[in-house]
Amino acid sequence: MMVPDYALIAEISLFSFGFSEAKNLSQKIVSTFKLSSEQLSSQDHYDFGMRAVKSVISAAGNLKRMYPDMDEQLICLRAIQDVNVPKFLIDDLKLFNGILSDLFPNVKEQPIDYGILNASLRSNCVKLGLKDVDEFILKCIQLYETTVVRHGLMLVGPAGSGKTECYKVLQVAQTELHGQPNPSLSFFCTTHTYVLNPKSITMGQLYGEFDLFTHEWTDGILSTLIRIGTTAATTDKRWYIFDGPVDAVWIENMNTVLDDNKKLCLSSGEIIKLTDHMTMMFEVADLAVASPATVSRCGMVYLGTSVLGIWPLIECWIKTLPPLIKVYSEQLEKLFKNFFLPGLDFIRSNVIEIVGTLDSALTFSHFRIFDCFVSPLKLKMGQKLAIPRHFIPLPIQLIKSARIQLKFVIFIV
């Protein structure tokens, strides 16, 4: 079987971008992926093939054009990190950093200034009722960097890990910063999102279909949206988000879209060319049934359960409670620390689940049950709460009463 010489291909590509140390740098790039494939864990969303090498070379070429006087080794190091770091698990990231430190021992990293973007992300987290956790903000920035170097990407992670809020916060931040310079030496643009679930509709409804009886072609949802985007007069960014599991039934038709030519080929024979302002984004829990061809064509941003944790969810939920309950937020926080979090640890250590659950799912179930008790206290717009003075709502009794608070929390858990 013929195997392409990755190092030679990388060397020629780097020479074409103006790198004077192309031979040495190409060997380091290829060695990085070779060592990563050998030492890192095996994950469905990992890819260390030729397309991964090509994406690093393209990112390095973009950086070379933006910073022609920057050290070439630093450019390659930054390109490798921008393309690969967002997809790694925490344990694999430590090993990957060790590989980079061995291959680039004398290169000192220069921090990238995300000043206005970082500030906008944090302020919009607060506006959307979210907690601006540092790890979550980092994932938003990694998503931004991935959209710069890739037009097709996947947000991978279990339910409740923050995938949806990640792209929503970034979208609002970019729209808010419209016209201001970004770290890529360009300008932030207004961003629009179009969300659809490809598994809830047929292939004909998604891409379009030809009616055998009337001999008429009917556009699908995706082809209609892309056609509108290609004819738009503005340069606004458009994210087409596929929220649902990825499988070969519908994703294989996207291969030409995810390639460098960026063409949507319809069964009618029509070809729609995507513009540079379009991004295909997939929000998935895993890629267990996705083909390697699809994985290699997309950039990856992995959000694990450790990105948010449980406590930010609790803090955000307490802020949504009615005023009568919110005055007892300190007591509620103590209850969660003393009973709820240990309760989750007990479940993970001692309970055998027939159907597996996530900590975030159990936490949201807890919130919903508690909300059933406080829903009578929630006021609508312009409504005043009229209750007798002697009346004490059940949740307040539970919070005040040390005798029954443990039973109540355990019941919800």
Summarize the helices and strands and which ones pair or pack.
Blueprint: H1 6-16, H2 22-39, H3 50-66, H4 72-84, H5 90-103, H6 115-127, H7 134-149, E1 152-156, H8 163-176, E2 191-196, H9 203-207, E3 208-210, E4 217-219, H10 221-230, E5 237-243, H11 248-251, H12 255-258, E6 263-265, E7 271-273, E8 278-284, H13 292-297, E9 299-302, H14 311-319, H15 323-326, H16 329-350, H17 359-374, H18 394-400, H19 405-412
Parallel strand pairs: 1-8, 1-9, 2-5, 5-8
Antiparallel strand pairs: 3-4, 6-7
The Rg value, from CA coordinates, equals 25 Å
Task: Tell me roughly what share of residues is in helical segments.
Answer: 40-55%
Q: Number of DSSP helices?
A: 19
CATH superfamily of the largest domain: P-loop containing nucleotide triphosphate hydrolases
Spatially, the strands of the biggest sheet line up as 2-5-8-1-9
Summarize the biggest pleated sheet.
Answer: 5 strands, parallel
Task: Output the keywords.
AAA_6; two-stranded antiparallel sheet; Dynein heavy chain hydrolytic ATP-binding dynein motor region domain-containing protein; 5-stranded parallel β-sheet; 3 domains; Helicase, Ruva Protein, domain 3; 413 residues; DHC; dynein light intermediate chain binding; alpha/beta; Rossmann fold
